[in-house]
Amino acid sequence: MPGFSYRQPLARKNPPRAEPSTDEDNSTVDNHRDDGKPKTFGRGIIADFKRTIGTHWVKEMTNFNTKTVAVSFFLFIAVIAPTITFGAVYAKATNNYIGAVELLLATAWCGIFYSLVSGQPMMINGGTGPVLTFQAVCYDLAKQLDVPFLTFNAWIGIWVCFYQLTAAFFDFNRLIKKATRFTDETFALLIVSIFLLGAIGNPSSKVGLFHYFGTDHPHHEDMLEEDATYDYMTVALLSLILGLGTAFFAIGLRQIRSSAFCCSDYARTVITDFAITISVVVMTALRHTVFEDVQIEELNVPDTFATSFTCCTEDCRDYWPTDCPDQAEPWGRRPWIVDLFDLNGNTEVIFIAAALGIPAFILTFLDNGITWHIVNHPSNRLAHGDAYNYDTVVSAVMVLVNSLMGLPWLVASTVPCIMHITAMQEKDNKGEVKYIQESRLTGLFTHGLVLACIFALSVIKLIPLPVLYGVFLFMGLVALPGQQFYQRFILLFQQPSKIDKNHYTTHIPINRIHKYTMFQFLFFGIVCVVREIKSISIAFPVMVLLCIPARLYLHPRLFSKDELTLLDGSPEEIERWLLKNDPEGEAIEKPSKSAQEEHIAQNGLKLPDSINDDDEVAHA
């Protein structure tokens, strides 16, 4: 996927010499290399801090430019859409104890805090489906135990914080580092598919553009109650136009960067950076001017900044007006700070929470760890290093504070993280990453905008929901093509003689590639099924975790070492294999003379006079 796409290794007659790490080179060798030894008793936390914050914090806080502004607006749109959507689902699952306002506040303060103090500032934290599912289960269990949900949830969060601190102290994150492309891309494709289904139409819910064509859509039912002349088909067609228009207009604007249009390279760069922002503004303006009379579905955002739960009585056990319909006015709203000792006499709940904290810890630990592993893949060329253990401590602090305030737990959100990485990259005309600007400012500005929106919720309501579906579609479509798993899946439908040549299609028989792809697709399908079955969906992260031992112990029985290197190895491993087994570069189409001359001119190179047309041009 973009930001996780594979950069084709270049075959060379001589091994490449090590180059010093510079800002534009973004070498990842020094800052990501792991000696394989456990860094227990807090040594990993200290090493992470020194390698990241202790070395790069000032630079990451001061590298302001036009790109940071453009990417901040893009990320704001990418963050606010799922935040409001998840907020509405949280409200339904927890009887409004947690709602859109709580998720907005958690997203804002956690994003600002993480941007300032984390070791991996390119990560974006947010609400996720698995965490939402777990907290919904906790709500049902709290009712069975006859204890207030927020108190029960707070004690679970306290234990999760303790377990996360323990994991960081004893370097449990070294287990996550054993994951390979097989695990990363299985998880990444799952997340991308969630975004695509959420935009187009999820079969298990009424979310998505094509659900507007059904008469039983909740929006249509509400509008028909208010207006008997309401035409659902007009709304459905306009929603589809706005959603698809948002996605494909933004994709079109992104193509301007490599085109001849506009007056300068700077103008093309600015348009590309602001592509999704321009698209959202244009489609929103179109809806409020040309189609202002069409009753398009709007965002379900609260009117004021306050806790979502309105209380019938002082103890705040019942929700007004649902639980007390005869009461004219609510007693008030629940307080922002949770009372830890409001246990209704059930002190054993503290120990029950300790047991439930274990699967909750596994859930947050894997959600964070796998996303961090995807983002820190060598092909992304991040130069400032990873900080798994230190950022686990940061995550523990966020979980603790959110639990005490009755806010949802946030973890690393895969697709926004990948989109952040992709947006900050500089690529050449062939789409290869030249370098990436690693900055804390984008995350800081993005979540500053989210915080500002909490006090201007009426402005957010102006954006039609179909436009945000278009943002989801854009993020999924842009993320999908660069993923090798997806590329290999497409090979199943292509004529073998027409398949593009690359390192694995040249050296591995096509039937073996298909076997590996189908094996990975089997694991992907199992993870999807587990996630969709509500009664066992809480085990979804464990199923993702099982991909790691499957790759380490099962794959070597089914595939050769060479096959696994070419299909699942890191770029460095693949390049070493090619240097040893394909020194003449047969796996790569040799460039034409015109292509060589273009490469030389772009990189300021000059060939010695002794080199003739038949000699191979070394690629830097």
Automatic annotation (TrEMBL):
It is a multi-pass membrane protein. Keywords: Membrane, Transmembrane, Transmembrane helix. Residues 1-40, 588-620 are annotated as: Disordered. It comes from the Eukaryota. InterPro entries: HCO3_transpt-like_TM_dom (IPR011531), HCO3_transpt_euk (IPR003020). Pfam families: HCO3_cotransp. Residues 41-202, 224-569 form the Bicarbonate transporter-like transmembrane domain. Residues 588-600 have a biased composition (Basic and acidic residues). GO terms for cellular component: plasma membrane. The keyword Membrane applies. Residues 611-620 have a biased composition (Acidic residues). This is Bicarbonate transporter-like transmembrane domain-containing protein.
